[in-house]
């Protein structure tokens, strides 16, 4: 059994229909539905990178376009999985069923008004209470749980440890084994002391990357040591840096821009090599709009000052 945190469509527009019909859903632009049906991932990816934008208005990276291709497959193949959705202060959950999905044409009523094929997969009736009959409210969640029980992307499969907590929450089980952990208690204490300024996991990563970019630029001025240190300039206004990094993280849907691996956040990681790391696409360029991508820490280290295209080629070889 897998556990997913999910939204349904841009601006979550399909949620009311999912709630009424007892389904989970996703959609494809009608121009690429045929590629998905044929299993033609490469044509799908190339089309989306050329013709689509993310919700943040940024051209999707290859890993993001590949993830979009996977979304409908995940929905269609889901059976017996737990799906959780946050709607304002309410947490809703359901279990996907074996029933066949439906595919329906739809014209979206926002943005550019895309023509899409929406896929609805039947599930058990959505519930806003746990199996013990208690309401599931967002404000009642432990502060640590709030870090992983919500996604700003389309869907996110929870890691095993977090999935266990989510299942215990739904079952109405005793949550003290988690709440008594030192990490969880420390998290709650930080929130209590500094409720207005304590960052969540995602904000931690954004602030850390911004700080690192400023620090690297401050210590890099083209000076001669044993070799020339490349001059790196920060050409994004300070007030725009963190909002831009936030939009970039949204555009990548929390995935490494090169490997497609799920990025982890500073202070909440279980593998430091998967932490968010800000990378210049052109290593000879500066920290500026359209020359930045967010990758895993190990990817940034391995790529170093190499060419982005060459490093991507080598990564692709490993997948063959």
Blueprint (SSEs and pairs):
Elements: E1 3-6, H1 15-21, E2 23-29, H2 30-38, H3 41-51, H4 62-77, E3 82-87, E4 90-95, E5 102-107, E6 115-122, E7 155-157, H5 160-171, H6 176-179, H7 182-193, H8 201-218, H9 238-251, E8 276-280, E9 292-296, H10 297-303, H11 308-319
Parallel strand pairs: 1-3
Antiparallel strand pairs: 1-7, 2-6, 3-4, 5-6, 8-9
Structure description:
Strand 3 (82-87) and strand 4 (90-95) form a beta hairpin. This protein has a four-stranded mixed β-sheet. It has two domains: 3-182, no CATH class; 201-319, Herpes Virus-1. It is globular and about 60 Å long. It is α+β, with helices and mostly antiparallel strands and 320 residues long. Mean pLDDT is 89; it is low at 224-229. 38% of the residues lie in helices and 16% in strands. Helix 3 (41-51) crosses helix 4. It is built from eleven helices and nine strands. The chain has helices at 15-21, 30-38, 41-51, 62-77, 160-171, 176-179, 182-193, 201-218, 238-251, 297-303, 308-319; strands at 3-6, 23-29, 82-87, 90-95, 102-107, 115-122, 155-157, 276-280, 292-296.
Strand content: 15-25%
Spatial extent as radius of gyration: 21 Å
Count of the domains: 2
The chain-level mean pLDDT equals 89
Order of helices and strands: EHEHHHEEEEEHHHHHEEHH
Number of helices: 11
Distance between the termini: 29 Å
Question: How many strands?
Answer: 9
Major sheet summary line: 4 strands, mixed
Percentage of residues in helical conformation: 25-40%
Shape call:
globular
Give the strand order, joined by hyphens, for the main sheet: 4-3-1-7
> Which class of secondary structure composition applies to the elements?
alpha+beta
Q: Which runs of at least 5 residues are low in confidence (pLDDT < 50)?
A: 224-229
